Amino acid sequence: MNNDILRNNLMELLKGGSAHLTMKDALKDLAQENRAKRPSNNVHSVWELLVHIKTAQEDIYQYTIDPFWKSPKWPDEYWPPKDQVDIPDELWNETIKNYKSDLNGLIKLVENKDLNLLSDIPHGEGRTYLREILLAADHNSHHIGQIVVVRKMLGDWK
Fold first, then answer.
1. Distance CA 102, CA 123 (A)
2. How far is Cα 133 from Cα 51, in angstroms, rounded to an integer?
3. Predicted local confidence at residue 135, as pLDDT
4. pLDDT tens-digit map of 10-40
């Protein structure tokens, strides 16, 4: 396969669209009072899912580029505290900004034609750049879909 085709497909996968909903679309018009609302005790809130996506994506991205990166403690540090009920705009917007920043970092990795995506990450325990990029895209897509389900359960999906 042509490397440009692979890179273009990976960028499309990371950005969303086509068969995958974008984060922007999943969060569009979400009522502020529903950010941290759980539709039931055993279902995560949109806020919990957003923080989890952002945290996991940051971990994957930083692991890929930084040999000294220390991953958060699983599972506690991959999720926000369950008692958060009011998510102010500043915290909400900062979380989305950080999500976008790390997503853009992953996209820049894909765009870097000097990087062999099939090569092992030097510090990556046998993992490749391609594996980490696919992992981030897959993880994001899964949980973005869950955001839609939560919003539907809350009656906050148009």
1. 19
2. 19
3. 98
4. 999 999 878 889 999 999 999 999 999 999 9
Reduced to 3 states, what is the DSSP secondary structure of residue 52? helix
Q: Which domains does the chain show, CATH number per domain?
A: 3-154 (1.20.120.450)
Residue with tokens 């989305």: 96
User: Model-level pTM greater than 0.85?
Assistant: yes
How far is residue 38's CA from residue 48's CA, in Å, rounded to a whole number? 9
Give the three-class secondary structure for 28.
coil
CA distance to 13, 52, 83, per residue, from 147 (Å): 18, 11, 19
Given a cut of 70, whether residue 1 has pLDDT beyond it is no
CA distance 84 to 35: 10
Tokens of 78: 């991959």
Give the closest residue to 134 by CA, choosing from 106, 104, 102.
Answer: 106
